[in-house]
Amino acid sequence: MAPKTTAEVSMDALYRIFTVPEAPDSTLGKIEQHLSENLEGFLASHIVTQERPLHEIEHDFAYSDIPEQPEFVSDHTDTLLKKLVAQSVHTASPRFIGHMTSALPYFLLPLAKLMVGLNQNLVKIETSKAFTPMERQVLGMMHHLVYGEKKGFYDRWMHSADHSLGAFCSGGTIANISALWVARNNLLAPDGDFAGVSAEGLAAGLQHYGYSRLVVLVSERGHYSLSKAADVLGIGRKNIVSVPADDNNRVQINELKAAAEKVTREGGRVMAIVGIAGTTETGHVDPLSEIAEIAEAYQAHFHVDAAWGGATLMSNTHRKLLAGIERADSLTIDAHKQMYVPMGAGMVLFKDPSLVSAIEHHAEYVIRRGSKDLGSHTMEGSRPGMAMLVYSALHVMGRKGYELLIDTGIERAKGFAALIEQQDDFEVITHPELCLLTYRYVPAEIKASLANADAEQIAAITPHLNILTRYIQKTQRENGRSFVSRTKLTPRQYFREGTLVFRTVLANPLTTHEMLAKIIVEQREIAATAPSLRKHILDAAERVGLVSSA
């Protein structure tokens, strides 16, 4: 192999890197052209379908020395194509239906380039003079979508220096942490000689107010980011109290009331109650209005984690599924999920724009008092102008465009569930409420007997079915033609036995019914390549009398 040439090291060379674009016929120039012309085609032709073992990919990125000499852009781009792009996950593929990441509208690519080129820092208005009011407007639009306040409300509060309708952040985790941060600081606010939890710490706050602990109540389907929030905020992960869900994966209201009463009776304080609008595993929505009643009764902050399902509010047909969300004190929405913008566009919204005063921070060199710097009310400091891409998507697609995408995704999920139910060797585990469902493969001779199986029989065959599910999912992923994810649920119909299932997210507008039918066929074909695993299932079923021996 010929030795790799290095680029020139000089101020002139560096100047060209900063100012002169690559030629149209260069590797990078061709990539830009192809991306602009056909994103899906470029990704399909450059991302390999056969999965490479992770340890081999790690070998490509094994050197820890910073390169001493620069290399030519075209050489480096070739390296990226071979080592990075080729082994990336094809999240834009209409057959990639396993996670909450979808295709992007093509117009966002050049706009993203513009955003990167402007390189605005949204922490302070001095580095984001136009981006700051634009971000405030986007937050106002989303606030209006949720809470529907009148025009005068937004005229007064949207651009107020001392208030905020919300904040952009990197994702749902930071949004959830921010909401609970606000809840904690407002609950343990300054009082008399007590300067507030932000000044004196949690222990002093608990002592001053006479609480033994602070607790957050959430369904057992709550996102793991809430445990992170409890850790960061000092209330402790054990104080995220998991409340049982019902057969439809929604929090049980009676259990929620009982948990709130128990915490209070024992001297604790319910700091917040979190409702879920689109659970990560099954896509279901908690009874938000009923949760709001309990939160009001216990004077707890009501937060809704709508990172996934919040965009459903765009649909006049389906927004009723989120009834009660307008009563939330705060909520999380991820625009990089069902609003189809690139990763890194989370939002937290606050019903009352004065709530954020409890987390206000200032510094003399930046976010000064009285300024409109967004950093005074955000957990993150330096941030890119992702609000620009949300702003553009809202304008280019409009509410009605989003409504069509949301409605189509939900109908597609219902259609896929119906297709699965027509099979004699597949079963739906959780039916879709939004555009997410779970299912699994079960040999036909076993499936016919499941409805009448008792707890002992289910316990005997489930571990073997789980092994087969894992094998099918992993093999399908490695084949690279399509992808579904998997998770473990505890279905009531199977006596709460831990059950591995395929998890499917149908938000990509390019996914067709024919593609879904082929995914089922592929999974059945993969199952046929594992006769020993199928035999273990049948043997276990025979041992416990679920099926008769041949």
UniProtKB/TrEMBL annotation:
Name this polypeptide is given: Putative pyridoxal-dependent aspartate 1-decarboxylase
Keywords assigned: Decarboxylase, Lyase, Pyridoxal phosphate
Gene3D superfamilies: Aspartate Aminotransferase, domain 1 (3.90.1150.10), Type I PLP-dependent aspartate aminotransferase-like (Major domain) (3.40.640.10)
Any Pfam family: Pyridoxal_deC
An annotated Gene Ontology molecular function: pyridoxal phosphate binding
Cofactor(s) the record lists: pyridoxal 5'-phosphate
Sites of N6-(pyridoxal phosphate)lysine modification: 337
InterPro entries, per database record: Asp_decarboxylase_pyridox, PyrdxlP-dep_de-COase, PyrdxlP-dep_Trfase, PyrdxlP-dep_Trfase_major, PyrdxlP-dep_Trfase_small
SUPFAM superfamilies: PLP-dependent transferases
Biological process, per Gene Ontology: carboxylic acid metabolic process
Homology family: Belongs to the group II decarboxylase family.
GO cellular component terms, A-Z: cytoplasm
Transmembrane region(s): none
Organism field: Aliidiomarina iranensis
